[in-house]
Design brief:
Number of domains: 1
Largest sheet: 2 strands, antiparallel
């Protein structure tokens, strides 16, 4: 199993969004007290990197869904993406081998992708159901 590039990109966006506090959007504070100075990937040459709020919020939901069912994956993502510890420091903190952390990142990517796919399927099902209901109403 390998890391999923599109999920890694979503997680990078999510990490920037989370550490910025989502700039006050979607109910979050304007600044993250815990991470404001800790994480430097949020800018390049002191210019803020743009963040896609809706995608980051959806990714946040997917990551938080791991917290209950696969908490070790949640902790791994938190250490790598929010605390910016890297694989070695995360392995030390979690008392695991570096290869285990890499495997957990792969597992997290696939779990998030599955969560996102299920959510997209549910949205599509509701859309089709609404279309069918509208057609029935028009037919009456």
């Amino acid at each position: 199993m390998a890391r999923l590039k599109h999920i890694q990109q979503r997680l990078d966006n999510w990490a920037i969004w989370t550490t910025r506090g989502a700039s006050g959007g979607l109910g979050y504070a304007t600044r993250s007290v815990l991470a404001s100075e800790v994480w430097s990937r949020g800018s390049y040459n002191h210019v803020p990197i743009p963040v896609f709020d809706e995608e980051a919020a959806e990714t946040d939901q997917a990551v938080r869904a791991l917290k209950l069912s696969k908490s070790h994956l949640f902790v791994t993502l938190e250490c790598i993406y929010l605390k910016d510890l890297g694989v070695k420091a995360t392995a030390r903190r979690m008392h695991r081998a570096e290869s285990t952390i890499k495997a957990q990142l792969e597992q997290a990517d696939h779990a998030i992708a599955a969560w996102l796919d299920a959510r997209a399927d549910e949205r599509e099902r509701k859309r089709v159901q609404a279309t069918v209901s509208a057609r029935r109403t028009d037919a009456l």
